[in-house]
Design goal:
332 residues; alpha/beta; 2 domains; 38% helix; 18% strand; globular
Length: 332
């Protein structure tokens, strides 16, 4: 016998339609659903966050029209946080799952566990992430989608069909998705594998599965002025003076050089906006941009590449990062 779980909950308040222009400041007439109040699974709002208009519209289309949305981009571009911050402003509950090598099909679908009932051991089915998310208003986000194991990916494939049920064979049960269940994913590649050698461990995705994503959006790094604004908002002590703002601008320029070098294959580590913010915070602590840069970023890098990064620093900051790096760059 197959039981169909009721996907609706009478306790769930209906969302109201609000203007995307007013809520996100983007030039579009789209009306988007927003729940009246935040619940425990709604992400916290980051008031300093800067939205990419095209990617924001793609994410909003997912929330509004129940489209399956995949966001692709280099690491550190803010793919997952973009979805989180859209959900935060829509008061939409969200759950992120990282598809690393330790996530199994049983983690997603569920498994039988032994529990003690009335003093005796008994077997009870413990539902996984997917069935738990599907029966309530929830945005389920699969991070590192292109790193998932093949058995895990096939468990996800049925979800990509809009309004499709999810079958639990061991339970003889079909789960119908809640009308406010949404599905998103983020990936460093577009399912073609590690062609450029930058992302070890990613998989080639089944084309039939990739084709089921309704919207695929590409996210690049922030515009320079936007990133400067975020760093200034996060570390206001550094942004209080014109010289401090000039320093933040130079820091973002250094970060962009590392990103260009990473894309060209010259270095294997780049500075994300998060790293720039950490650098700015450490400047407030150590009162020395060079020392803060070493402790925030360069010590994470391959030793053979540090002289290249020191050249980036010297080019923008007009000062030596470290004498030993300068000698290495000179070949001595």
């Amino acid at each position: 016998m197959v039981n169909n779980m009721n996907p609706e909950s009478p306790m769930t308040p209906a969302p109201e339609m609000v203007s995307a222009r007013e809520l996100f400041g983007i030039d579009h007439d789209l009306l988007v659903p927003r729940f009246p109040k935040a619940t425990e699974h709604v992400p916290a709002i980051d008031p300093a966050y800067r939205f990419n208009p095209d990617v924001t519209l793609a994410i909003l289309a997912g929330f509004t029209h129940n489209s399956r949305v995949l966001i692709q981009g280099l690491h550190g571009t803010g793919k997952s946080t973009h979805i989180e911050q859209v959900a935060a402003r829509l008061n939409w509950p969200l759950l992120r799952v990282n598809l690393d090598g330790h996530i199994s099909r049983l983690d997603l679908v569920g498994k039988d566990t032994v529990v003690i009932q009335d003093g005796q051991p008994a077997t009870k089915f413990q539902e996984g992430v997917i069935p738990w998310s599907m029966v309530q208003p929830m945005a389920l986000v699969f991070d590192e989608y292109d790193a998932g194991r093949p058995d895990v990916m096939f468990a996800i494939q049925r979800l990509l069909e809009r309004d499709g049920g999810f079958t639990l064979p061991d339970q003889n049960r079909v789960i119908r998705p809640h009308q406010h269940f949404r599905l998103f994913a983020t990936a460093n590649t577009v399912g073609l594998g590690n062609l450029n050698g930058l992302y070890h461990g990613v998989q080639r995705l089944n084309h039939a599965q990739l084709d089921r994503w309704n919207i695929v959006a590409a996210l690049d790094y922030l515009a320079v002025e936007d990133e400067i604004g975020i760093v200034a908002a996060r570390v206001p002590a550094l942004a209080q003076t014109p010289s401090g703002m000039d320093l933040i601008r130079s820091m973002v320029q250094v970060a962009n050089l590392t990103r260009d070098g990473f894309a060209a294959g010259d270095i294997s580590t780049l500075m994300s906006p998060r790293t720039v913010i950490t650098w700015a915070e450490n400047i407030s602590i150590f009162r020395d941009p060079a020392r803060a840069f070493r402790l925030s970023f360069i010590n994470k890098c391959d030793e053979a590449e540090r002289f290249i990064i020191s050249e980036y620093y010297q080019r923008v900051m007009a000062s030596e990062l470290d004498e030993s790096y300068a000698l290495l760059a000179a070949g001595t």
